[in-house]
UniProtKB/TrEMBL annotation:
The lineage of its organism: Bacteria, Bacillati, Actinomycetota, Actinomycetes, Kitasatosporales. The keyword DNA-binding applies. Coiled coil: none annotated. Keywords: DNA-binding. Signal peptide: none annotated. It comes from the Bacteria. It holds the Pfam family YjbR. This is MmcQ/YjbR family DNA-binding protein. It comes from Streptomyces vastus.
């Protein structure tokens, strides 16, 4: 997955915006103001911080040591840093991004979730 493919995929979800609250190099992808992905698109290697169910986070770290690690500068229980350099299947990376988005949406207030469902 290239940096542009990562960016495009994150922006493909409903109501997502890209923000730069920390610096011009760090892309923060948010849904209704809540962070679900954080990356430096020009980073080498390319990595992305993603929200994850705590049990899944531990399992993924065990299955993909060195490629999926506890979230850098994040709550290590709920966030993983995923290396997107081609060693992980793109399909898995997309699933992890989608799971992160879904977890954040699930935590929104009901009214906010209902607004997301409208066309």
């Amino acid at each position: 997955m290239t940096p542009e493919e990562l960016r495009s995929f994150c922006l493909s979800f409903n109501a997502v915006v890209e923000d730069f609250p920390f610096n011009p190099e760090t892309s923060v992808f948010k849904v209704v103001g809540k962070l679900f992905a954080l990356t430096q698109l020009d980073g080498v290697p390319l990595t992305v911080n993603l929200k994850c169910d705590p049990e899944d986070a531990i399992r993924l770290r065990g299955e993909y040591p060195g490629l999926i690690v506890p979230g850098y500068h994040m709550n290590k229980r709920h966030w993983n840093t995923v290396t997107v350099d081609g060693e992980l299947p793109d399909r898995l990376v997309r699933e992890l991004i989608e799971d992160s988005y879904d977890l954040v949406v699930a935590g929104l207030r009901r009214a906010e979730r209902l607004r997301l469902d409208r066309p």
